[in-house]
Structures are given as C-alpha cells and as structure tokens.
Amino acid sequence: MASKAFAVVAGVGPGTGASVARRFAQAYPVALLARSPENFSELVKEINQSGGKAIGISTDVSSEESVKNAFKKIKEEFGDANCAAAVFNASGRFARKPFLEMTVKDFSNSWEVSVQGALIFSQAALPGLLKHAEDKSAKYPPTLIFTGATASVKANAQMSGFAAPKFALRAMSTSLAKEFAPKGVHVAHAVIDGVIDIPRTKDWLKDMPPEAKIGADDIAQSYWALHEQSNRCFTNEIDIRPMLEKW
Amino acid sequence: MASKAFAVVAGVGPGTGASVARRFAQAYPVALLARSPENFSELVKEINQSGGKAIGISTDVSSEESVKNAFKKIKEEFGDANCAAAVFNASGRFARKPFLEMTVKDFSNSWEVSVQGALIFSQAALPGLLKHAEDKSAKYPPTLIFTGATASVKANAQMSGFAAPKFALRAMSTSLAKEFAPKGVHVAHAVIDGVIDIPRTKDWLKDMPPEAKIGADDIAQSYWALHEQSNRCFTNEIDIRPMLEKW
Amino acid sequence: MASKAFAVVAGVGPGTGASVARRFAQAYPVALLARSPENFSELVKEINQSGGKAIGISTDVSSEESVKNAFKKIKEEFGDANCAAAVFNASGRFARKPFLEMTVKDFSNSWEVSVQGALIFSQAALPGLLKHAEDKSAKYPPTLIFTGATASVKANAQMSGFAAPKFALRAMSTSLAKEFAPKGVHVAHAVIDGVIDIPRTKDWLKDMPPEAKIGADDIAQSYWALHEQSNRCFTNEIDIRPMLEKW
Amino acid sequence: MASKAFAVVAGVGPGTGASVARRFAQAYPVALLARSPENFSELVKEINQSGGKAIGISTDVSSEESVKNAFKKIKEEFGDANCAAAVFNASGRFARKPFLEMTVKDFSNSWEVSVQGALIFSQAALPGLLKHAEDKSAKYPPTLIFTGATASVKANAQMSGFAAPKFALRAMSTSLAKEFAPKGVHVAHAVIDGVIDIPRTKDWLKDMPPEAKIGADDIAQSYWALHEQSNRCFTNEIDIRPMLEKW
Fold it and tell me: Where on the tree of life does the source sit, at the highest rank (chains A, B, C, D) (predicted)?
C-alpha cells in the first residue's frame, strides 16, 4: 500500500472489535480503543508478534477529552498518517427491563456511549478520513463503519433504552453518509441481527450447530469487503445473520 | 364522560401543542406543560373562558424533578383523576450545521428534550394512563402520543443532531406500544412530514396556497381520532402531510 | 352534504368490506363490488332498509371489462355523481406453501386480484375522485384507500405469493399518493397487522379475550377518520392492531 | 475449487449482467440467459477466449417452458453440477407515465419479467443451489442474488408500474431468505440506488465526474463479496450508490 494510513477501532473487546482489528491489521497499522486495557493488551501483542502493527489506548469514547487524547497518541505513534478506516463498535450496556423501572441514568449511560460516543469518535476520525480521500495513492476509499444491532431497526418491548440509541446511531450513520460521500468518505452501518459467537455467548444456543451464531471473524471480513468497495459503489448498510437465524 | 380523567400535553407552543390542547379540552380538563408561561398563559385563559378547564405548568421536560412537580401540581388541581391522554410534543431545538461544527452540547441538548424528556414524561404519565385502562367507565382507551417529524424516518445531511433523537423517540414509541398495549394503553407516533402553519413559519412557502402547509388544528383532530380508536383497533403510527407537500 | 357523491367499496365480504360499506353508507350512497352476489345482497338490503342507499354489483376486479361495467352501472344508478371515497379491499387468496411447490398460477392469481385489480379499480374511480376534488361543496377531500396486511411490510417464509402482491400494492398506493395529492385526492394505505374478527376467523384465538382480534367496524371507523382529514392533513399510511396483538 | 459447480445469470445485457458474468466466470463456468443472443454472444466468446467457460442461452425468463429449457441445456453442457450462484438481473421495461395513461399490459409486462420471472428462475435454480449447500467440498455457500433498484424501496409519482414489481421482488427475496437460509442457501437483494455507468446511460450526468455513476464491475465485485460470505454471516440486503449520488 503506497499511502501511509492507519485504521482505528473503537470498542475492542473479545468479539467483533478484536476480529475487525485483526482483519484491518493485515493492511494497516491499527489503533485499538477500549475503556480497559485488558480488552486490547493481549491482542496488541498478538498483532505485533504476527507481523502487524498495533497500539492500544485506554479510551472512554463518551468523553471528548479522552478521545482527543487517543487521537493525539495515534498521531505520536503513527505520525501524520491518513485514516483509512475507522470502525465504531462501542455500545452502551443495557439490560432489558420494564419501562417504568428504567432510570434516566440507565438511558443516558446507553446514549452516552452509543450515540455521543459515535459523534465524538467520528469527529475525531473524520479529518484523517478526509485526508485519505484526497490521497491519490490510497488503494481504497476511507471508510467509517458503525456497528448496529437488531435493535437498530426493531424496538421490542422493554428494550427502548437500547433501541433508542441504536436507532439514533443509524440516523447518524445515514446523515454522515449523505454529508461525506461527496467528499469521498464511505460511511456504512451494519445491522448485526443475531447472536455473535463470542466468549460471553458461549452458552447461548448450545444445542444448535455453529451456524446458529454469527462468526466475529466473518463480520470482520464483511467490514473489510465494505472497505474494498470503490467510490463508484458505496454500500451504506448491510445486515448480517447466521444461516440458522430465527429472525 | 363518566370517568374522571384529564389530558396532559407537553410542549405547548403557538402551534401543534396549542391546537392539541384545545381539541382535547373539548372532552377533558387539560394540563399544559411548557418551559415558559408565555407559551400557555393566554391559551389557559382562552380554554377556561370558553367552558373548558385548563391549567398551565412551567416545566422543563428534560428534568425529572420538574416533571414530577408538574404531575404533583396536576394531582392537586384535578384530584386523583385518570390520565385519558398524554401528548408529548416537545422537541429539542436544533440547527442544521456541518457535522464537524456540531458540539457535544448541541447534540445533548437536543437529546435531553426529545428523548430523555419523552422518557421522563411517559414515566410520569403512565400510572394515570394505566389507571384509565382499568376504568370500565372510560369512553376511550388511554392514549400516549409522540410527535415526530420528517427527521424521525429520514436522516438528511447535517441533520444528525435532530434526526438521531427523533429516530430514538420513534424507537421508544414502538417499544412502549409493544409493552403497554396488552395493558390497554394505546401508544402512537405521528410523523409530521411537512411545514406546519404556525406563526413562526408564516413567511415560508409564501407563494403557495394554504394547502402547502399542514394545519395545526388538523393535526390535533387526527390525534383525537387516534384517541377515539377502540382497543380492537390501535394505530401505532400515522404520517401527516399537506396536500401540496413535495415529499 | 351539499355535493352529490357516492362511495364505492371493492372486495365486500362478511368482514372489513361490509363494515366499511355500512360506515360510509351513513354519509353517501354506496356501491358494493364483489365477485359473488351472496357477498353483498344481504348487506345491500340492510343498508337500504335502514335509511341508506346501496347497490351491489357482481364484479371481477381483475378484469378491466368487468370493472368498467360496474362503474357504468354506478353511473346509471347514481347519475353523474362525484366519487367521495373509493376503498379497495380485495385480496387474492393465497395459501402458505413451500416456495418450490408454488405454481406460477398461484402467484398470478394473487397478483391479478391484489395489484392488477387495484390498478383497474383505481383507474376507474379516479375520474370521479378528481371531480370531487374540484367540487367546492364537498365536505371532505375525496379518499382512495387500500387495505393492506402484515404481509405488506413483512415477507415471511413461504408467504412470497401473498407478500409480493401486498408489497406491490403498497408501492402503488404511495406512488398514487404522490401523483394525486397535489390534485386534491387523499390516498391512504392501511396495514392491517392482526387477525380481524370475522366469521371465517371465529375459531382463531378462541382462548383469548375479544381484544386479541381487530374489530371490522373499528377498521371502518378508522377509514372514515382518514376520509375526514382535511387537505392540510393527509395521512398516507396507518397500521392497525388489536390491543393483545403479539406483533 | 474442489466442487463441480456453475453460476447462472439471468438478464445479461451490456451492463451489470455482463460484469457479474465476467466476475463469476473467474471461479465457475457460467450460463448466461438473455432474451436475445446479441446480449450475450460476444461476452460468451470473450469469457471462453480468456480462459473461462461460458454458454449463452436465449431465454424468456417470464416463461416457465423457456427457463426449463435453459436449465436443461445447462445440464447438458455442465453435467450434473451444483449451482454455486444464481443472479437474477432481469427487469421488465417500464416508462414513467401518468397513472391514468398506464395500461394493464404495461403493468403486467413489467410484472411478468420482474416478479414472475424471478419466481420461475428461482424455482429452476434452487435444486442446484440446495445441492451445493449439501456439498462439503463447496468453498462458499450457494448464493441467490436479486438485483433491485431505487424503486424497490421508493415509489415515486408515475412510477408504480416499475415500483410495484420491484417492491414485490424484494418481498420475494426476503421470503426466500427466510425459507432457504436454514437449508444453507444465501439469498440477497441489492438495491442499486443510482445511475449505472453503461452504454445506454453514456449521456446521462455528462457534466459530472465518473464518481456520479455506479460502476457495473463494482456491482459485480460486491455481488462476489456477498457470495464469499460464510454461512455464519449472511447479508440479505445491500444498497449501492456512487460517491456523488444525490440520494
């Protein structure tokens, strides 16, 4: 790859985020953002040892200051590089509960990570993405990807605290696609509509074959395929389901 | 009407909120909530003088305490009445601006009114709505209505600060409909997809006939028609456009 | 009502169609179209005996000639009246079956009634609807309503023969709304998302209270409420569910 | 590729169909179906001369007999091979025109190719696709792709004759995805939302840079990326736009 460019992933845990980091690390140095270092330290080591380049940065995506510091650190490490890809994979935790038992805090916690976090992260990544769009040596258009969920398009009972921010994130993704596509940035939203096969879901759907869950590496490959799309073919939304999804 | 019940409208200004208040005041005593008394004081007087009953309460819907106080005041005024209808018509102000110029504060202001406000208001109104659902003498099922906009379903460029909360509000409405319909509460969301004819928009579409704008009283009548629906026929979403809407 | 105008309902059976006919007969002479006279003859008698005016016409909505004859008959009976409301409630029969067992004929039967029928019926009704839009003495804007179903927005497994035409009908409704709203015709689509309480579904959801089914008269009332909307407030789509719908 | 499998493309013209054929011919022998041989004869020659294998078959996709003959011919040429991929790219011609000027024939022509054709083609291809799903040596899950358009999700004025079948096709695609995913067939629908750069559109958007149009080869690459997805990651719908799309 001729151009000097990095990829950044926010919300790196043991699932999709890690897989996306590994996949994009095959092409770019990667910066991994997560609240707790235990979410990225092993992975950073793994990538660096297998010939890639990775840094991990403790970041609270809901905090402007924290994200600014992260991007400052990225600049220190990777120099004045373009941003080839930015993946927002963070999501506020939210437990299903009766509406009348939800607190304003439940709600705002979820919002602050999923939506405010996406705003702050996107604003930090966009200057580097726009620079990459101008770079004639760039192999692929710069790509900004948001990870959504079933709740991005379906608002079930007792799930408003999760669905409201996820619907909002989807709106933000579409709005950004419309504003930044003409400037060469490819913005996409992925509706992950099923159970991802990660350590936390190990015991879910136990009696079912592996095809009942979504593979995290497979999601990562699909994100990479989005990144490979040319500027004459931008996909702004994909859905993802396992073969045995009940829908 | 046999049952003792009131209606409450949050977000009363010179447009939709006022019209809704007038329409529901034909059947119920109404409580009008708005941040500034100038938004409801004339209207309260008008309703009370024309044979209805209205109270106005200065309320910041984004504040739990303020909304709790408002409902305490309602109880003092209307006694232990059911809530027959609650209309959430508040909306955070938001100006179209380039994404990179938006501040976290722009965003959270909009969110706090449109979504957090809807959460707080709904939680305050639901006990009274549920009581009305149990009341055999109630003429119509209790109704909780949220006012949406074009931006509830369409996220245009530079509009994410408005569209994100509006998408979120729509998710909340659907989730509430699914949770509370079985308990007898009719929840509905209205996508107002056009320019409403209010003092603020007086000079918009000036060269067009009146049918280019949505009538605020007509919206109110449509909300009333939602309220009249039986529990064997709940509509959870309507869209509203003027005859000459360009879409 | 000052203006001389009739309403026409296609697809009159013992359910929604009959209820819609009764409701609109309170305001207009009504023409009832159904393939078999047994679907309307009792109802015609009932309406005429209770002070309304109704005619029934054996019609195959999928046939241009048959629909033309029906509208000729309407003209003979009602004179040169405007069409105040036209409701397309016909639907091709379709049984859920594995895709590989469906025949082209299964599919085209369903299409011919649900979509081709809607085309033919709308083309026949529109001249009268447009005339009503020009009539200054008309109380309400002329209204063209299409009855949809869950399958209008959700395409389940083995249901493509029903969902494909229903999706298509919804597209037609939207397209007509955009073309004819500026000419004063209010076009609306109703997604009936639940079991309607009609003789044929008597044994369905037997262990559930009446609120588990949609009331046909309640649908009719909602259609009437659509008709009452002014030309500064057109709703182009409503969904309808019973209180105890599982979604 | 260990398994013996072919790909089949219906609706091969000088645009998307040809590009898809070329792309899939890099991995599979391909059968190209089009009404007129002039649509595929040069392309068949080109593929065969460049090391691939292709056959062209004159086919009317709206005719069961014609499609059956085509698949019989495929079997004669490719033997008892699996079907690795089937792409339905045919579309009934339709001109924008006022609703009242459309004929039933305009409508049914469009339906017969876009929807009835999709039914017939899918039924012919599915046995081979299902066989591929059972084949342990298959590299990728068998894939059935439908080409949609803006009109698959947006029904503009005067466009119902095109939008109705396209909405219907989308319903069919979703229904098939739900029925056949559990059997291992990956079904996907592509909303091509912009002008494709093909000979016929040469003079469109002339003053705009190439990024104002969608590249046919780029669409083909995106279809290939769908085909590469594992059965733990099926995308059922993508949208595609050029960088400079106005939306």
Answer: Eukaryota
The answer to whether the Cβ–Cβ distance between A210 and D232 falls below 8 Å is yes
Q: Which pLDDT score is estimated for D13?
A: 86
Residue type, A207: D
Instruction: In whole angstroms, give the CA distance from residue C53 to residue B190.
Output: 36
Helix axes A117-134, A64-78, angle to 10 degrees: 30
Asked if the model's pLDDT at residue B16 lies above 90, the reply is: yes
- Asked if CATH classification 3.40.640.10 holds for the domain at D5-240, the reply, yes or no, is no
**Opening angle at CA A98, ends B109 and A244, nearest 5:** 100
CA distances from B28 to A75, A200, B90 (A): 62, 52, 21
Q: What residue spans of chain D are helical by DSSP H? A: 16-25, 41-49, 64-78, 104-111, 117-134, 160-180, 216-228
pLDDT at position B3 is 58
CA dihedral A79, A80, A85, A91 (to 10 degrees): 70
C108 touching D (Cβ < 8 Å): yes
Strand partners, A143: A85, A186
List C-alpha distances in Å: C13 to C89, C101, C216: 9, 29, 11
> Hey, are the CB atoms on D169 and C164 less than 8 Å from each other?
yes
Listed ranges C196-200, D125-129, D242-246; the one with the highest mean pLDDT? D125-129
Interface of A with D in 163-182 (CB under 8 A): 178, 181-182
Residue B95 predicted with pLDDT over 80? no
Q: What is the pLDDT of residue D2?
A: 44
- Helices D41-49 and D16-25 meet at what angle, rounded to 10? 20
CB contact under 8 A, D232 and A238: no
ipTM for the whole complex:
0.96
Alpha helices for A181-245 (secondary structure H) = 216-228
- How far apart, in whole angstroms, are the C-alpha atoms of residue B91 and residue B112? 9
The pair of structure tokens assigned to C104 is 């082209």
Nearest by Cα to B238 from B203, B197, B198, B192: B192
Nearest to A164 among B115, B151, B163 (CB): B115
Helices of type H across chain B: 16-25, 41-49, 64-78, 104-111, 117-134, 160-180, 216-228
Confidence of residue D4 (pLDDT cuts 50, 70, 90): confident
Q: Could you read off the pLDDT of A196-235 as tens digits, one per residue?
A: 999 989 999 989 999 999 999 999 999 999 999 999 999 9
Contact predicate C211/C164, CB 8 Å = no
Q: What is the mean pLDDT of chain D?
A: 95
Judge whether residue C101 has pLDDT over 50: yes
Dist. CA A182–CA A180, nearest whole Å:
5
Tokens of B243: 């005859």
Confidence at A3, pLDDT banded by 50, 70, 90? low
CB pairs under 8 A between B and C: 111
pLDDT at B2: 44
**How far is C162 from C114, CA to CA, in rounded Å?**
9
Residue C169 to chain D, least CA–CA distance (Å)? 6
CB contact under 8 A, B241 and C178: no
Residues in Cβ contact with B75 at an 8 Å cutoff, skipping those fewer than 6 apart: none
**Tens of pLDDT along B119-144?**
999 999 999 999 999 999 999 999 99
Distance CA D117, CA D128 (A): 18
Q: For residue C104, what are the CA distances in angstroms to C99, C111, D36, D119, D168?
A: 11, 10, 23, 8, 15
Place of tokens 């067009």: B208
Q: What is the pLDDT of residue C2?
A: 44
Residue D171's nearest CA partner among D194, D157, D160, D187 is: D187
State pLDDT tens for residues D111-151: 999 999 999 999 999 999 999 999 999 999 999 999 999 99
Angle subtended by helix axes D117-134 and D160-180, to nearest 10: 20
